[in-house]
Amino acid sequence: MTSILIALSILGSCTQEYDEPNFEVQSDDIISSYSANNVLISGQIRQASNMKITLEAPLMQSKGKNIELSSDSLDGNGHFEMNTSIPGLGYFMLKIYGESVDSIELTLSPGDDITIEAQKDSIHESISVDGVMWSKDLEAYQSIRAKQNPIALSNFAAQRMKATPSSPFNVILSNHIMNSEDQWNEERIQIFGRVAEAFYQMDPKSEATQNFVRNFELMQTYMLNNGFYEAPDFESSTIDGGTISLSDLRGKYVLIDFWASWCGPCRKENPKVVALYKKYKNQNFTILSVSLDEDMTRWKTAIEKDNLSWPYHVSDLKGWKSAVVPLYRIEGIPFTVLVNPKGRIIGVNLRGPSLEERMQNIFNF
């Protein structure tokens, strides 16, 4: 059983004070956000004499086009040297223009001094890299990628990201985690989270960091909506003085509805919850209402006044000090968790139209 949940803040909710999140995603213009820093890239691309070579920043686009940071020509023996400025830690691409355009993916940080050697007709299979901590990762990556085996790439990415969370090359490796949803699991999302945190500590404003944070949140949301996690079990007191646990309702679809009589947005949402229950109560569906009230009388009165007719109402009458608050990482109410008959989470903070749409998909209404 796991308690790995994200608390999704919703406008129009009753909240408590809580610590600031670990990550901040900023949307300022990418280039103007950083001071320029130089990198040196040199080496030899055999069989590519006099061809054009460029360094581009695909994630740092201007007017819909990749930013070209440097452009030069290889000499007669394929040697090149680029001394150029980059806006910060990020994803870049070295491109060689001949009859076809060949490219090498790079992650660069200010101050990098990299040497690359390759042969143009085998550049996708084998290269030699020196000068950065991720040199061997790039060499292995080129060899694995040439075999066009997505699972092998995904496994390699997970292995290296776990071993070196702060490696800049994780910018590239992470793509092969994100593109392999069928390979996602709890371990991989934890790996991704550690990498996102490591990058945030290194350079919180870089586009690479922002992408890690956004993708980490995307992975969490996807997994929370698709049964990857078992809903943390809990037991609480019913309105008539008994007790019931979430696991007692195993075998049904359960909407855990966290609310309180004093919460205006909760009371405003209740008619929609009532309508949902009436529509699906005969479809192996029920509601477990968990109140963050502290006053028994007000709790009972609100249930009666709002016609919350389902049988499962619980509260420990401790308000924000309730044991369910840290268990489900609740930061605001109303807050909902949809659980399938196996006790696994298939939706977090679904309300209104989004909740109705999920229910229609489940029951084919």
Protein model, in words:
This protein is an alpha+beta fold and about 375 residues long. The protein has three domains: about 35-130, Transthyretin/hydroxyisourate hydrolase domain (Immunoglobulin-like); about 150-225, no CATH class; about 235-365, 3-Layer(aba) Sandwich (Glutaredoxin), CATH 3.40.30. It has nine helices and 17 strands. It has helices at about 135-145, 150-165, 170-180, 185-200, 205-225, 265-280, 295-305, 325, 350-365; strands at about 15, 35-45, 50-60, 65-75, 80-85, 90-95, 100-110, 115-120, 125-130, 235, 245, 255-260, 285-290, 310-315, 330-335, 335-340, 345-350. The strands form five sheets. It has a five-stranded mixed beta sheet. A hairpin with a 7-residue loop joins strand 8 (about 115-120) and strand 9 (about 125-130). Helix 1 runs antiparallel to helix 2, helix 4 (about 185-200) packs antiparallel against helix 5 and helix 6 packs parallel to helix 9 (about 350-365). It is elongated and about 85 Å long. The two termini are about 30 Å apart. The model is unreliable at about 1-10 and about 15-35 (pLDDT under 50).
What attributes characterize this protein structure?
Immunoglobulin-like; Glutaredoxin; single chain; alpha+beta; elongated; four-stranded mixed sheet; 365 residues; five-stranded mixed sheet
What is the CATH homologous superfamily assignment of the largest domain? Glutaredoxin
Uncertain spans, ≥5 residues at pLDDT below 50? 1-12, 17-35
Helix content: 25-40%
Percent in strands: 25-35%
Radius of gyration: 27 Å
How many beta strands in the DSSP annotation?
17
CATH hierarchy, class of the largest domain:
Alpha Beta
Tally of domains:
3
Q: Give the N-to-C terminal Cα separation.
A: 31 Å
What's the number of helices? 9
Q: Spell the H/E element sequence.
A: EEEEEEEEEHHHHHEEEHEHEHEEEH
Describe the strand arrangement of the main beta sheet, using strand numbers: 14-13-12-16-17
